[in-house]
Write a structure and sequence with these properties.
The chain contains five helices and six strands. It is α/β, with parallel strands linked by helices. The structure holds ligand AR6.
Amino acid sequence: MKTPRTELIMGDITTLEVEAIVNAANRSLLGGGGVDGAIHRAAGPALLEECKGLDGCETGQSKITRGYQLKAKYIIHTVGPVWHGGSQNEDKLLASCYRSSLELAREKKIKTIAFPGISTGVYGFPRGLAAVIAVNEAQRFLRDNKFPEKVIFISFDEDNFETYRKLLKE
Ligand code: AR6
């Protein structure tokens, strides 16, 4: 069933006009490549300064900062698991990334939050499975909570978009 509180779009997360975007970070929280690099570049150097004070973040957990030069007011940095074949709790850790990010959004009464495919780039998590986990966690959280009001999934390429589209239609 399609819920009105989820949305799927294609594009670059750093350009979105939403209250919070989620960053696929690493445990240092001090920047990197992929979406993390793009977010740090777009937000500007003050983001790194705030991140230095956060003392890193465990895999599966999330921390929040301001958005600085982004249109988004907040950035929620979550640390996805590296895919090791599936036997090291990767699925539970990925689910925990989505949940802990949504919990921070609820705490701040954030209305709209956008997620990239956490762990689906250099961390190598299979995209189909990652999308199922992302959609399940978001839909469960939305059912039980008033905030966030809306969850946006953003895809960087057409294949991934199609995977999400099918899941959100079910
Ligand atoms: N907007 C939306 N999605 C994007 C963008 C963008 N601008 N850029 C990439 N993606 P990745 P990970 C998608 O590798 O696998 C960093 O170095 C991309 O297509 O950014 O969680 C961190 O510092 C993919 O589907 O993150 C960590 O060390 C998804 O974002 C490590 O990479 C995530 O790809 C984290 O690896």
